[in-house]
Input
Amino acid sequence: MIKYCVSCLVILLFSLGTPAFSQSGKIKGKITDLNGQGIEAATVSIPKLGKGGISDASGVYRIENVAYGTWQLEVSFLGYQPYKITITVDQEEITQDVALSPSSESDLNEVVISGTMKEVSKLESPVPVEVYTSKFFKANPVPSIFDALQNINGVRPQLNCNVCNTGDIHINGLEGPYTMILIDGMPIVSGLSTVYGLSGIPQSLIERVEVVKGPASTLYGSEAVAGLINIITKKPGNAPLIAADVFGTTWGEVNTDLAAKFKAGEKVQSLLGVNYFNYQNAIDNNNDNFTDVTLQNRLSVFNKWNFDRKDNRIFTLAGRYVYEDRWGGEMNWSRKYRGGDEVYGESIYTNRWELFGVYQLPVREKILFQFSTNGHDQNSVYGSTPYLADQYIGFGQLTWFKTLGKHDLLTGITYRYTYYDDNTPATAAAHDAGINKPTHTRLPGVFLQDEIELNDHNRLLLGMRYDYNSIHGSILSPRLNYKWSSPDRNNILRLSAGNGYRVANVFTEDHAALTGARQVVFINDLKPERSWNGNLNFVKKIYAGSTLIGLDATAFYTYFTNKIIPDYDTDANKIIYDNLDGYGVSKGASLNVDVVFPGGLKILAGATAMDVYNTEEGEKQRQLFAERFTGVWNIGYSFRRIGLSVDYTGNLYGPMRLPLLSDTDPRSEYAPWWSIQNIQLTKKIGDKVEIYGGVKNLLNWTPNKGVPFLIARAHDPFDKNVQFDADGQAMVTPENPYGLTFDPSYVYGPNQGIRGFLGIRYTLLR
Output
């Protein structure tokens, strides 16, 4: 299907006409700091024309073919305040130099964000949004966005299986299914792809990553309960001509990122990116005869097209294809054992395609049509248990932006269709488990948002969304946000309250339900989860001489009803799913501290303290895999004269409750404090090349330390030597002294120990 879509797109591109002739000139200049030193890779743009460029190693920039007229020139760079100036182009060449002033938010870009589904200044947004640029992630290079999020405060990549190493993203202690993942504002990741969709996005194409914590269902619908992560890719006009990033580790991992931009006529620009990751070195350092890290072979191709249209109307189209072959299991496993009960292995073949875009209607009003569609084919075996699944999602959204006086209105209608089929009881007919019955879910919705500028210092945002789920019926989601700012914008207070909801599909979200180690049981028909959230956010800038300090503090509280809880405790051989007959709570506070010193030292650190629990029949119990404390840091120092920089990154996690199999299980119910720390050196060579290297996991921490084993009964993965009583419970025997069955769900951190890495980046700006 992708092949036919690409063919149609190519035909469309070459059918476009050439632009009409008009007078144009060139803008050039130099971007420097206040000391006159050139700033490399600063973004220079004329938003109204959709044109821009990037400064070179000396800070010099050029923007070609700028139509005669008066335009607003905007300059931005990480760690500096955004700069705007009005410039008139009335001759062949115009020179405009710019000196940028330092900003207190070195790694949180203040230029534009989309927390309210439209681009606004971060300072002016009534919704608190954390923004992390591509440079932030370069401080700790990793092969996927899933791993890259480990250094964001309150966000934790959670491994869900010791064998196949699949995982999801936790925000403020809430599991992955509560987090919505978007690319360029489109919800292309859901269901199956919540587990697998974050791998393989080429990082060379990423402009920034936006994180919204707390329910965002008013704008984005189901799944945006804990929050959302929006991956913003580069615009073809602002991307380097060629970019390459290749690194390898002493464990034998090799990751390659390639990107290039090109033109297909005067009105069409394209951005192409390829990511390839390969790891084929089976290692068993914890001596349980199982691979510590899954072997992987992953290819991802991303292509984005931008079309110049009359009156600068928007039209972008993008597609992505991901193929992954991964396996983990006993060290002597090979393909011939796939699906059998002789040697245990978990083998996963994934084929996934995505197509999404934005088209602005050719009318005077700003009306956008946004769409995304994706298909996901999953062919997996967990020991002798197969999991075969197909999922197709189509999403369309029409939004209308309108300003009336002090009211900035946004209204939209949406429709989402989901097809899902697998070989599990999830799609079996209700009265006959032998008959397959794929699910067809339709979700139309409508939403309205009004952002009111009360005065120069106060903004109020009101929102409401109505969805009709074809299975669960009507769902209403209100929202309220308030922002106050001091006259100098150095103090900002935000108050948010809103409702979120989630319609669960257990088999597409919970890996433990698929391992074959436990039987999955549904007590009742699952109802949609609902949540109410409130948070208070305070941002402060402090100017201490030439040192700039930024503080970002948040207190949050979320209350859940109908929460769907997987019960691991009642029966060691079952995972029992039902709506909670009570309530759940996620509450806590977080603080980010951002310090920029004039000599080249930058510190970004954060900490979150939280309590995530469920209460049923008056009994309170901590949620599984929810830590009470998390801390992160990113400390960097630049030796500017010699082009060398040092980055020290890390995280620290407090204890979390883990699933045990029985009262006699010798493993600890709570994980210990643990930390992953990394150091990296980066050396610039000329204008185009960077060489970087360092050490990951400096402390050589792995979760097997301090416990007798991670995988229960790794020597008997098919339970051939387990004896069961009349109730189906494992019995204590001389061969099985703890009364356990095979289970790999006792996992909370990566099994990969200390390793070195070395990489090279090449960037050709034009």
Residues 1-21, 104-115 have pLDDT under 50 and may be disordered. Residues 232-764 form a domain with the Maltoporin; Chain A fold (CATH 2.40.170.20). The first strand starts at residue 24 and ends at 32.
